[in-house]
Specification:
- The complex is a heterodimer of chains A (293) and B (197).
- In chain A, helix 5 (86-95) links the parallel strand 4 (77-82) and strand 5 (99-103).
- With 293 residues, chain A is α/β, with parallel strands linked by helices.
- In chain A, 43% of the residues lie in helices and 13% in strands.
- The two termini of chain A are 36 Å apart.
- Chain A contains 13 helices and nine strands.
- Chain B has helices at residues 13-22, 49-58, 62-70, 80-85, 178-196; strands at residues 3-7, 26-30, 41-44, 75-78, 86-89, 100-105, 116-122, 126-133, 138-142, 146-152, 155-161, 164-167.
- A seven-stranded mixed β-sheet of chain B has the order 2-1-3-4-12-11-10. Chain B has a three-stranded mixed β-sheet with strand order 5-6-9. In chain B, strands 7-8 form a two-stranded antiparallel ribbon.
- The longest helix of chain B is centred in the C-terminal third of the chain and has 19 residues, at 178-196.
- Classes of the chains: A alpha/beta (293), B alpha/beta (197).
- Chain A binds chain B through residues 1-5, 7-9, 11-12, 14-19, 34-40, 74-76, 93, 96-99, 121-123, 248, 251-252, 255-256, and chain B through 8-15, 31, 46-48, 50-51, 54-55, 58, 79-80, 106-107, 110-118, 132-135, 152-153, 170, 173-174.
Chain lengths: 293, 197
């Protein structure tokens, strides 16, 4: 019996496809998420919009919170470690967390090096904005990708940009002749072998979810339409007026993302969504997507 | 051509479709109950069983799925799909579909870090099958008439009860399409005998 193989780690993400992964900060929220049909929960100390508002250094959640969430639900539990923070990642792995997010939502611990994720038994998800970043993270051993988007803003524009960009670059790569791939690798700072694999298979070798700014059922459906394998919803759900209803609506809109009448029904009277932030109003140095490389 | 549906509410739907097509059958992604009518067999894929159950309830799939099984048309559950099919889920008062004469236990090998690959012998299917187990359930007991097809570490991981087939691993995650082929064989036989009855 072999544990921690690529197939087992990537396969876990495959099982999440077509689903919604929800940020939660306590056991009660985790239960609401599970009841609404979330495929997994992300256990956090604060949701991204609160992290943004609080400022200061954002770190791994208190293990007590992660533990409470793990005890509260039977669906998989994910947790975030700071970029490059080997010990936070090892601690969460030792606790038995099902998936780690090496996340730009937290303050990076290392501005030069990401984690060598192939070293871990626990699988990792990482953010990406383009094929270069996607391929670098895969090269380090990430088993799942997500768009970076701009977390905690309730503004979908960055997630759309990142999903479209990665998919367009994959399409371009697939149609390239083999002797052009090395130059493409150089231009994107991407590992050549990973690009060759993407070219051969016609798609990324791991699942790619949408994340960062999804605030409504229509936003979730839009990301599915653009080719996301599933969605992460951070601040959107538990910052809304009726989290249980909102969570159910997001789940259904993700499943039936091309059923527009249904999405209209789901979107009725959901109450005020989170207020949202215009990206140009966020100073470049405060943009979470610029963290990591 | 034999038409096999894959319940497409959540999970590894696309991979099952590929595996069905590799076996030369036609695949249909099932998102609504009325699509069940045209099928010769149905696969309940891997994914999150609690999520699938919520969506089954939400879109009134429960009775149509039970009726599908009771019509004699084969069903194949992998991992979460096995949990949906089982007659008993350990620790829960009620099963989901409750069609297959087995009891299963969820996440019985542990959390994700305990997920694994192993080589299995699957009766009537393969002597050398590389199986991928992800937060997998296992079959705690097989009821009367249920045939055990594979075991791993002393636990039952694949079984067949009449026209119901279930396994705790994920055939859709590998390029080995033999167990899907076995299921399509079951669907073809059922189709022939239902046509004659």
């Amino acid at each position: 019996m072999n544990t921690g193989t690529d197939r087992v780690k990537r396969g876990m993400a495959e099982m999440q496809k077509g689903g919604v992964i929800m940020d939660v900060v306590n056991a009660e929220q985790a239960k609401i998420a599970e009841e609404a049909g979330a495929v997994a929960v992300m256990a956090l100390e604060r949701v991204p919009s609160d992290i943004r508002a609080a400022g200061g250094v954002a770190r791994m959640a208190d293990p007590r919170i992660v533990e409470e969430v793990m005890n509260a639900v039977t669906i998989p539990v994910m947790a975030k470690a700071r970029i490059g923070h080997i010990v936070e990642a090892r601690v969460l792995e030792a606790m038995g967390v099902d998936y780690l997010d090496e996340s730009e939502v937290l303050t990076p611990a290392d501005e030069e090096y990401h984690l060598l994720k192939s070293d871990y038994t626990v699988p990792f998800v990482c953010g990406c904005r383009d094929i270069g970043e996607a391929a670098r993270r895969i090269g380090e051993g990430a088993s799942m990708l997500r768009t970076k988007g701009e977390p905690g803003t309730g503004n979908i524009v960055e997630a759309v940009r990142h999903m479209r960009k990665v998919n367009a670059q994959v399409r371009k790569l697939v149609h390239m002749s083999e002797d052009e791939v090395m130059t493409e690798a150089r231009n994107h700072g991407a590992p050549f072998e990973v690009l060759m694999q993407i070219r051969k298979e016609g798609k990324l070798p791991v699942v790619n979810f949408a994340a960062g700014g999804i605030a409504t059922p229509a936003d979730a459906a839009l990301m599915m339409e653009l080719g996301a394998d599933g969605v992460f919803v951070g601040s959107g759900i538990f910052k809304s007026d009726n989290p249980a209803k909102f969570a159910r609506a997001i789940v259904e809109a993700t499943t039936h993302y091309q059923d527009y009448k249904l999405i209209a029904e789901l979107s009725k009277e959901l109450g005020e969504p989170m207020k949202g932030l215009e990206i140009s109003k966020i100073a470049p140095e405060s943009r979470m997507q610029e963290r990591g490389w | 051509m034999t038409k096999i549906g894959v319940l497409g509410l959540q999970g590894a739907v696309r991979e099952h479709v590929r595996s069905i097509e590799e076996n030369g059958a036609e695949a249909v992604v099932v998102k609504w109950p009325e699509q069940l009518d045209e099928l010769d067999g149905l696969i309940l894929p891997g994914g999150e069983s609690t999520t699938m159950r919520r969506l089954i309830d939400r879109y009134s799939f429960m009775e149509p799925l039970r009726a599908f099984g009771e019509s004699g048309r084969p069903m194949f559950g992998t991992c979460a799909g096995l949990i949906l099919l089982a007659g008993e889920v350990v620790g829960y008062a009620e099963p989901h579909l409750g069609l297959m004469n087995i009891a299963v236990e969820r996440n019985s090998f542990g959390r994700q870090k305990e997920s694994f690959e192993a080589d299995l012998m699957i009766k009537d299917v393969a002597d050398d099958y590389n199986a991928v187990f992800i937060r997998a359930p296992h079959i705690v007991s097989a009821g009367e008439g249920t045939e055990v097809l594979a075991e791993c570490d002393g636990r039952i991981v694949a079984a067949r009860d009449r026209h119901y087939l279930g396994c705790s691993f994920h055939p859709e995650l590998t390029d080995d399409h033999r167990i899907t082929g076995y299921f399509i064989g079951m669907a073809e036989q059922a189709k022939a005998s239902l046509a004659n009855s």
